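Appendix C reproduces, verbatim, an entry submitted by the partner laboratory led by Prof. M.T., so that reviewers can inspect both the input and the predicted structure.
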Amino acid sequence: MKTIAIIDDDIYIGNMLEEILRGEGYGVLRAYSGTEALLLLSKASPDLILLDLMLPGLSGEELLPKIEYIPTIIVSAKVDTQSKVSLLLGGAVDYVTKPFNIQELLARITVALRNARAKETGILNFAEIKLRTDTRQVHVGEKEIGLTRTEYAILKLLMQNPEQVIAKSTLLERISLDTPDCTESSLKIHISNLRKKLREVGEKNYIESVWGIGFKLVK
């Protein structure tokens, strides 16, 4: 059973999340401040953390750098883009804005836990595509294909979120560490080249454009 730590001083939200997560089969740990969370994490190692930012004692922004090797989803009322970018680049695996849709949050938890598992094994799979994060090799079926740094970063993010439509802005934001030279104007070209390389080997389109939003993988 996977265990999730809820770090939030809002008792109502924490109780609601605990009830839902236990109903989904997760174990739950609770902390109501940043300092209490540090004490909790010194004694326990949850599989995932839901972290609020506006905490007494030690804020979520101050606590995040102290969390090691545990995927952390920020759950916060802060909506400004700069906060999201800073926290994602600072170690958070995802950012959910309050008020949130519980089904979306559960989906993001599932993806984060799946990605953590993939990180342990170093392998991501989607249909006939296999991506090794340790060697950066990509195979379609039995054939290896050569990708540029940017194409690899795009495919990796899409495979880490195989059931989601990834917005263009999110894609650019999340791959910026791996490939800072990718811009909004060049993204379409990189996607087109990646789609072509996958199609030439797999003989079908694996990347679908969702008009006005972004891109997703299709089987």
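DSSP finds eight helices and twelve strands in the chain. Additional entries are available on request from the coordinating office.
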